[in-house]
Structures are given as C-alpha cells and as structure tokens.
Specification:
alpha+beta, about 300 residues, single chain, 4-stranded antiparallel β-sheet, about 25% strand
Length: about 300
Amino acid sequence: MPRDRVSVWVPATSANLGVGFDCLGLALTLGNRFTFERAEESSFSGCEPRFANPGNLAYTTYLEASRALGVEPSPVALSCETGIPLSGGLGSSSTCIVAGIAAAHALAGVEVDRRRLVGLASEREGHPDNVAPAVLGGLTSSFMTEEGEVVCMEAPVSDAWRFVAVCPPYEVRTEDARRVMPPSVPLATAVWQMGRVAATCHALETGDGGLLAKACDDRLHEPYRRPLIAHYDRCRTACLGAGASAFWISGSGSTMMAACLGDACAAAVEAAARGVDPGLRTFALSCCAGGTSIR
C-alpha cells in the first residue's frame, strides 16, 4: 500500500578496510536519517545550504527510482538529519542513494528486500563496497559479476572492536584518489593482498588484534593515497602508538580509521589523534549490525 511518509536511517560505512580494496566494507554506529513526506511542492531542510535544493542526491535518487518503478514521483518535503561528517570516507553519498531508493519503493507501496536494495543501490553508485554494508549491516565482502549481479557475503564483527574515525577538516576528491593509483600492479603485490584479506576478515570476526595488526597492511592503494591526506603519517603513528591494532584510510579519504580493542583503547586513540591537531574530529564507533532501517 502506498504511504504518505517514510523515514530511512542509513549507517555510515568504512570501505576497503586496508587490504580489501573495492571489496570489503563495514557498517558503523553513526548515520544519516532522511524523512520523505508527500507535499504540495518539494522542499528541503536539515542539510547544509549547498544541498538544500533539487540537486540533493537523496532527492534525485528518489526521482530516478520512482520513475524506474513506473511511478510519477510526488513532490516531497525532504528532511535530513546528518550525523556523518562530510570530510569524505564514511559513505555519506551511499546513505543518500540507499535512502532515495528505499523511499521511492515505500511511498509507491512496492516491497523491496535488502538484497534487491543492495543491487539497485550498487547500480546507481557504481560499486557495492559502501552500499552493501550500509544496507545489510556488519562486515561485507562484495563483488559484481560480468552480468552486473552483485554478490555479497556477510559476516559478524566481534563486539570487542571499536573503530575510531579521524576526520580532517578537508575533503579528498574521489577522482583524485582514483587518479593517483597505478593502472596495474606487480604480481607480488596481488599475492600480498590476497594473503591478507581473509585474515583481516577473520580478525574482525574474532576480535584478534594481533592478527589484524599483521594482516591489515595494504600495498595496493594506500601508498599512493597517503600524500593526499596531510595528517595521515602523524595520525597513523599517534594512533598505533596509543594502542590501535590497525589503521587505514576509510574509503578514499580523507577520513582515517583506527581499529581498537575496547573502550579504554579507543579513548586513548581519540586523545592521541586530537593531540596531532585539535582541528581533527574523532568518533569512537562500533559495528552496526542491523544496517538500514525503514519506517
């Protein structure tokens, strides 16, 4: 049955997790909420002024998804509650895409299961590494077949882990982060990566900090992207020195992520990161097991 109002909460995500370039993703206990309500004319509230217009990604995705269903989209009052920093690297664009697609289906009265939502959002986003954990929650490993089918494996994450997001006051453009990477890699680098992806997943599932410290050591993309983040080297040294098990660039940056065992370690790592530069924002997060919620 069609609805007049729908509220969609979508969690932040950290993609790549170091060695899992374009494949691994993790949902986090931070998120954005989007409320779509039928109205006489469309309006936008709760977001930054630059997004309070018909170019808003959640809104344009809602329009596209509605038309793909064969439904003429109604004007909506779109209200946004944004908890995810816009420095980049925490999947904020994915939250907009997932919310827009989910809202289009809900307002049209069309049921969509989570796997289908992952596929539709991946098609819109171009890849599933952020949208899969955003929709499904937890830790996901995803890829797309040559036919465009999204294949996604889910895994739980130990409750012992805390993930400290370190957010600089600047963005790294995804285009720049892609541009600096080489078009091919040596066979030895590919072997290095493959030998560590499964171990990284196992360490996150079991809470094995020693294993994560050994496995989460990327050679595929981070060596090329580090120079784009002015704070990277100092933050890495500070966070690992304060007890973090691993440290990686979240998505394509500029957000960085430190994996910590327990609240005390996370607090020490937050303090160490802020000691590098008081302008850095930090968030101590857990894994979000539930993914997207729609009501």
